[in-house]
Amino acid sequence: MKITISDRIIDNSINEPDKLSVLSNIMGLTGIDSRTDNIIDNDNLDLLEQYENAVKKYKLNIVSVHAPFKNQDISSEDEHFRKKSIRNIEKSILIADRLQASYVTVHCSGKIENNADNKKLLENAIKSLDEIKIMADVNDITLLVENTIENMICHSIDEMKYIAEKGFSLCFDYGHANIISGDPTKFYNAIKDDVKIIHFHTNNGKKDEHNFDEQIFRTMLDSVDNNTIVEIEPDNQYISIEQITEILKTL
Fold this sequence. Notes:
Elements: E1 2-6, H1 16-23, E2 32-35, H2 37-41, H3 45-57, E3 62-66, H4 79-98, E4 103-106, H5 118-138, E5 142-146, H6 157-165, E6 169-173, H7 174-181, H8 184-191, E7 195-200, H9 214-221, E8 229-232, H10 241-249
Parallel strand pairs: 1-2, 1-8, 2-3, 3-4, 4-5, 5-6, 6-7, 7-8
Helix pairs in contact: 1-3, 4-5, 7-8
């Protein structure tokens, strides 16, 4: 089993290349999930070059790139906004290819209105994913659709199964599933055949806190297929580099 880590555990006041410097101190780390929102939002090619150089300098393995999801919505009925969101995910694919990553993780929507036609929005999202997949396939990148939280498309088991039936691989987010179902293990077991990466973080079942419970983490690992990548994804205030290093030593 491969254990990776999200660079979101590093404070956002630190720029992307310097985050890699910090992560390089984690002994036993096999890979990183990269958040490149600042590069994509600002089309900052200089920052991308610095980031790429840092990856090479510290001999790090970027396994996946998480596409931007704030102010993005590939399910939108606003065609201009939907297309703009598609283009930003395509930028993530190009960055993933440049960093030699294998996966790009996407959200199917932003926050939706209570009276929205969820079925129509889901079909919009699939239409967008089909378009994005063309570029992903050309660059040998696997798209992963992540389960989300309430008021977003792709938060339920049925929706995730439907996405998989349409030919897409999945990213299982443990914390999101806990909020939606209260039983992340049941949620995971229902879709696990199509899951390539697990995002692990915990919460109180109500708020997407991105906390970290080591005991729950170890228990979850016992039920995960050896071919699945497990990504540690808490926010930086909930876990330290030293704690992660100690955990990795015992796995």
